């Protein structure tokens, strides 16, 4: 077993991070998105503790980015889409605005204490690697970069350098801390139990999923998130990605990671220990909690989110996942176990199929069926030695998925 990248050795957090109550500077990548704007909410609430050093966005919402720059006065800004740069520059006089993928990578490596990567999709890999290569502590929402980069990202990170933003992995890290007075003890862990809301189509059979529409898939029952992760939650691809993420972050093998459906989304995940004890982390669904824990790591940010109201009656339910209706998790386990370039192919095919579904070119069930077909055709390169290899597999999978979806 290797040292996990997500759990600090002891409870102090990475040694080069200022103490949890000392001022910390943060670069927020994907600041205009769901995770990014909630990270800014947390930062704004604790002005003595957190300061924004840099902001990055795609360029789709230049007005929002300009307002964020006005409010947080970062040292630097980058916009991925060069066409949007001019509008942002005009709106934010005085703050340098870098352009394109290179500008994004430069801000990802900008001097700061924590880089929050809230970019969506495989494109976030370059930023993850840039931040880690620069020696930053990485608060990781962009799970895709870890999943597709796998060993490359882990090597660049080292023990305790990645702070999980995903609520499930934040919960797992919190439960693992609780394992003993000295913190994480891998020998004490029997199983990670990752919870899933089940998405908007929970309880439906495969036949009942045939005609579901993008509008229905975009109505998540418990979380308010960006488009990609919302559709991924409906197909359960998101849960598949999270199983691979859990394996990579905590070095627990796939056969000891269980997915359980918990429609209330209050228990965010659990760890079962060798003595039969299970520790769970519970809080109403609100990403500001796991986000705040990465910024204050390993200390908590008071008032970051509303707690469970223990004076009211609650019912929490847990049920097994229906792998027949939602085969995405089993397929993810398969590609995760294959390793190498397989997870990059799974993710890239999904990103293309998801767009095809939203555009009305692919039925809902076609998303995972097509991913499976693309994964099946891919000759896996067993180990990933370079980022070029990852992006080559990613490009191949996108091209093949486009052919199969008629794009
Ligand atoms: N949302 C959640 O509650 C949640 C929970 C757990 C994990 N996550 C993970 O967090 C990540 C972000 O999700 P989200 O829901 O916040 O996504 P989102 O709302 O779609 O936001 C994505 C952000 O990335 C920016 N962006 C897009 N392309 C970019 C590029 N090429 N370079 C730099 N920035 C780019 C977007 O900018 P524009 O606005 O300019 O397009 C936006 O700021 C995903 O990996 C997701 O799986 C999200």
Automatic annotation (TrEMBL):
GO MF, one annotated term: isomerase activity
Positions contributing to Mn(2+) binding: 166, 168, 242
Keyword Nucleotide-binding: no
Domain 1-deoxy-D-xylulose 5-phosphate reductoisomerase C-terminal: 162-250
GO terms of biological process kind: isopentenyl diphosphate biosynthetic process, methylerythritol 4-phosphate pathway involved in terpenoid biosynthetic process
Cofactor(s), names only, from the UniProt record: Mg(2+); Mn(2+)
Enzyme Commission no: 1.1.1.267
Enzyme class, spelled out: oxidoreductase
Similarity comment text for this entry: Belongs to the DXR family.
Name of the protein: 1-deoxy-D-xylulose 5-phosphate reductoisomerase
Lineage per the UniProt record: Bacteria, Bacillati, Actinomycetota, Actinomycetes, Streptosporangiales
